[in-house]
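Field guide to reading this record: the first block holds the primary sequence, the second block holds the structure written as discrete tokens, and the final block holds curator observations. Each block starts with its own label. This record concerns NADPH-dependent oxidoreductase, catalogued under organism Marinobacterium zhoushanense.

BLOCK 1 — SEQUENCE
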Amino acid sequence: MNAVIELLKQHRSIRKFRPEPIDQETVNTLIEAGQCAATSSFIQACTVIQVDNPDLRAELAECAGNQAYVATAPRFLVFCADMRRHQLACQMHGADMQSGYTEQFLTASLDCALFAQNVAIAAESLNLGLVYIGGLRNQIERVANLLELPELVYPVFGLCMGYPAQDPETKPRLPLDVVLKHDRYDDSQDHGAIASYDEQVLEYYRTRTGGNKEMSWSGQISGMLVKEARPHMLPFLQSRGFLKK
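BLOCK 2 — STRUCTURE
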């Protein structure tokens, strides 16, 4: 174990922040750390929008399901998968860009996630807390319009960031044997492992300081996956030039 691994294993979502600001130089450093993440074929397909305007923050909080910390966190960033600059690169060389491929959507989205995770780890190393905001995709077209995103750019998620005003427990993760397989996919033992893990999660939810509930992991997942999962996403992405072929 070393300091980096210890930091990674201590991750918690933070939704309450102290009022202290995060200076722009720190934000810039975090974004530079994000840029150092792995990027597929050097495409560098992530753009980050730092949202400072309080009225805009309030609208984005509404888009995300009225998550108040989107409006009140010291910093709020929106991570966008961006193939727009690649269109410009092709134009600079008189090339006709072939866009709309599923592979391009995947590589741009993965680039964005890797970039953001670098930012998150760097932020936590500075004793900052954070929480990802996937809820922006609830009203993704409205978010895109508010941020004036052009074709070939879409908002993947937001990130609230600030100095923590809470100290929640670390949420238990799935057993290692469920997620680490050797040589082939074998889930023959997963049912029992997940049943045992459910007991851990039940105890976590029963005793955590941030609000109690009676819920197992498998119960939570089964309840989520019997519902529609943002069916508006596909037509939106296709309207923005993604997932056409």
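BLOCK 3 — OBSERVATIONS
The mean pLDDT is 97.
The longest helix spans residues 102-125.
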